Structures are given as structure tokens and as C-alpha cells.
Amino acid sequence: MRRTVPTAARSLAARGALSIAVAGATALAMPCAASAQAGQDVATRELAARAPAKSTAQGVRPDVDRLSIDELDRLAAESRQRWSTSRHGQMLLRILPAGPRPSELPEPESRGARLVALYCVQCHHLPDPAMHDAERWRGVVQRMVPRMEGKGNLGALMADMMKAPGGAQAPGLAAPRPGEAREIVAYLQRHAQQPLDPTQPGLARALDTDAGRMFRHACDQCHVLPDPKRHAAADWPAVVRRMQANMLWMNRVAGTRFDVREPQLRAADIVAFLQRHAR
Ligand code: HEC
Ligand code: HEC
């Protein structure tokens, strides 16, 4: 039987900012998933206030197999320039931290990577496939396709943002067909985050210790709790440093101030926890 991870972390996080003390004395204020969600709600409302977009089902659908990886890198940079300088730029920059370039994706030559590189840069930074687990990716793509089709309350964004290759004068880009959406999901799932299995021997009890609680508070704010076995002990410090950079981005976005009354999350203890349960 698969037991669920205790959700105490979530309810704690819902109270407000969590902070993580970095080795040394500085502490980073870290907003919780709730405020990230609030940011998204603001985004949704902001866009909902605009007139619904015309359907772009007639948009252009380029043959991704004929686009070189260099071309995809160039198009991604062009897209970013377009959305980040649009009147929704500030909101769109808040959706995801800067991700890989198309050429830096795993299996960059594969069709899945090419489709992700073409479509998933039209409104925000290219997401890293390692960010979410397989189950979450299915849901995310199901949420994104209607946006690209100009349906729902984010239709206006679609009309403004989706552009076929061809520079400023390019026509609109059509949303992926159902088969292409399935290829995108399969690709993201192939390179997805490995979620923690709380039934692993020894892990359930460890998650209930102070270090385990700190790990849960810090590390399930943006994605599922990662499996400590994903990395060898020697590799975890660098991964956690990268995550702290992601948290800094999130903090800058939400503008949460460090509050000394909030629980302190010590990066060193989280690393030690991960290392104890590493491969
Ligand atoms: C038409 C615009 C548009 C396109 C194209 C688009 N997105 Fe999004 N995306 C959004 C908006 C708006 C949000 C913020 C609201 C939300 O999360 O639903 C978002 C949020 C996200 C998030 C952050 C939220 C989370 O659950 O982690 C991820 C990841 C994401 N998109 C992945 C993708 C992928 C993968 C693709 C390509 C298949 C894609 N997006 C294409 C508009 C778009
Ligand atoms: C502010 C959002 C955010 C928080 C909080 C966060 N992550 Fe991540 N995580 C990401 C993003 C974005 C990616 C994909 C890009 C990357 O790998 O840097 C990711 C990917 C990962 C991956 C897969 C990539 C790899 O190198 O294996 C692991 C493992 C991971 N995170 C662990 C953690 C741990 C441990 C914590 C808690 C210390 C944490 N994350 C907290 C945003 C976050």
C-alpha cells in the first residue's frame, strides 16, 4: 500500500513565508506554494479581464523535424524577447524561473524535445523536464493546450503570444494536435523528476524527524518531494544550491520579506538528510 507523505508541511507553509538559512549566517526568505499560487491567480484574473481571443485554430503549424536545433534556440530567444517585453511581460516572467535553452534539453534532437522547444517557450521560460514528476506533467500539459487553443479565460494571452517562425511579421502559431500533445507528455515524462516513495524502508520515520520536516517544508513547494535516491551523496550539495537559486527567484517574484518569527530551514541539515538517504 502506498502511504501519502504527511501534509503538515503544506499547512505550515500556508501560513506564510518559510525561510532557509544558508550555510553561514544569511537567511533567505522563501515564499510558500500558496503565494506562488496566489501569483498565478493574479495572472489569471489579469488576463481574464481582457476580451476573449479569436480562435487561432487556423494558425500555422510548422514541421518541427525540419527546424535545426540552432533555429529552435534562436526562435526560443525571439519568443522570450516577445513575451517579456509585452505588456504582460512582468507577469509572464513570474511563471517559471529561467530554464534550459532548447539545445540544452535532454535528447535535443528527438521529436518530443523539438515540440517542447517550439511550443513551451511561447508564453514563459522553457520548463525543465526534471522539474515535475510524470503524473504532474500530464496535468500541466492538459492545462496548457487549451490556453494555446485560445480557449478559456487565458485565450487573450494565446492570441497575443503564439507566433510561428518568421520574425515580427510571422503569422500565429496553431496549438499542437492531440497526437503532438501526447508526444510532449511522453517526452516530459521520460525525463521527469523521480518522486520520493515514502514506503521506502526507513524513510517514513526519517521524514518525521526535524531534518525530515525541514526537507519537506523546503522541497515540496514547487514540485513533488524528490527521491533522495536520485543522486549520490556527493551530488546533493550542488543540487540543493541550485534549488536555493530557484527559491531566490521565487522570493524576488513574490517579494516576501524574511520574518524572524518564521521557522528556520537550514540548508546544511537538508543536505545531510538527503545524503543519509542517497543512492
Ligand atoms: C499560451 C501560453 C502558454 C503556452 C504556449 C504554454 N504555457 Fe505553460 N503556463 C501558461 C500560464 C498562463 C501559466 C501560469 C498559470 C498556470 O500555471 O496554469 C503557465 C504555467 C506553466 C508552468 C508552471 C506551473 C506548474 O504547474 O508548475 C509550467 C511547468 C508550464 N506552464 C509548462 C508548460 C509546458 C510544458 C508548455 C508546452 C507544452 C507550456 N507550458 C506552454 C501559459 C502557457
Ligand atoms: C522555487 C521552486 C523550487 C523549490 C522550492 C525547490 N525546487 Fe527543485 N526544482 C525546481 C525547478 C525549476 C527544477 C528544474 C530545474 C533545475 O533542475 O534546476 C527543479 C528540479 C529538481 C530536481 C531534479 C533535477 C536534478 O538535478 O535531479 C531535484 C532532485 C530537486 N529539484 C530537488 C529539490 C530539493 C531537494 C529541494 C529543497 C531543498 C527543492 N528541489 C526545492 C524548483 C524548485
Write a structural description.
The protein has twelve helices and three strands, in the order αββααααααααααβα. The chain has 279 residues and is mostly helical. The chain folds into two domains: 8-36 and 203-276, no CATH class; 52-190, no CATH class. A three-stranded mixed β-sheet has the order 2-1-3. Helix 5 (111-119) crosses helix 8 and helix 10 crosses helix 12 (267-276). The longest helix is centred in the last third of the chain and has 19 residues, at 236-254. Mean pLDDT is 79; it is low at 1-44 and 46-56. The protein binds heme C (2 copies). One heme C binds at residues 97, 128, 130-131, 193, 218-219, 221-223, 226, 230, 239-240, 242-243, 246-247, 250, 270.
Please provide a brief summary of the model.
The chain is mostly helical.
What order do the helices and strands come in, and which of them pair?
Layout: H1 8-13, E1 18-21, E2 27-30, H2 33-48, H3 69-84, H4 89-93, H5 111-119, H6 134-148, H7 155-161, H8 178-190, H9 203-207, H10 210-219, H11 236-254, E3 264-266, H12 267-276
Parallel strand pairs: 1-3
Antiparallel strand pairs: 1-2
This protein binds heme C (2 copies).
